[in-house]
# Entry
Amino acid sequence: MRRAVELLFTRLIRSRIGIALVIAVLVLGVIGTARLVSGPDDLTAGLSSRPREPITTVDPEEGDDGVIATPLPESPLTRPGELTPEQTATRFTTAWLGGSTTTAEQWQAALRPMSTPELTEKLTGADPAGVPAVKIAGTPTLRPRTAVFTEVLVPLEGGRLRLELVAPDGRWLVDAVDWERE
# Structure
């Protein structure tokens, strides 16, 4: 018997199988002890207490809960006696196109009354000879965004001029200029 016990401790426990058996006995012992200490199972705890019906957060009688249509943009507001966005865009475009026959200073002076200070600063040093079009080819198209911000598209020969106009005090001024070739 002594020899069997000695064989068990020296060879079996030191082998991989022996170590695995010892670990398995320890794990089962911890789990068994935990179950004995915890007491009887509570059948209402955990997932067994879930509701029988799905939980709804929307009243089914309310109707469609999809995306609401975006409202139409406000019409641009113009102070009495001031130019409308279309008129401002047309005058600005005429002055912008007329720069090829004048000096840079005269061209910028013609644009200044219809431009924001930020645009006037950006145009400083610009060469009017670089304007790619020579005449207006149609009527301006207004794209209102808010009551004080609108976009005007002016068709020109060979492209389109896109102007962003702002009117923080009711007077429309061009704030950005973009040329789009066709």
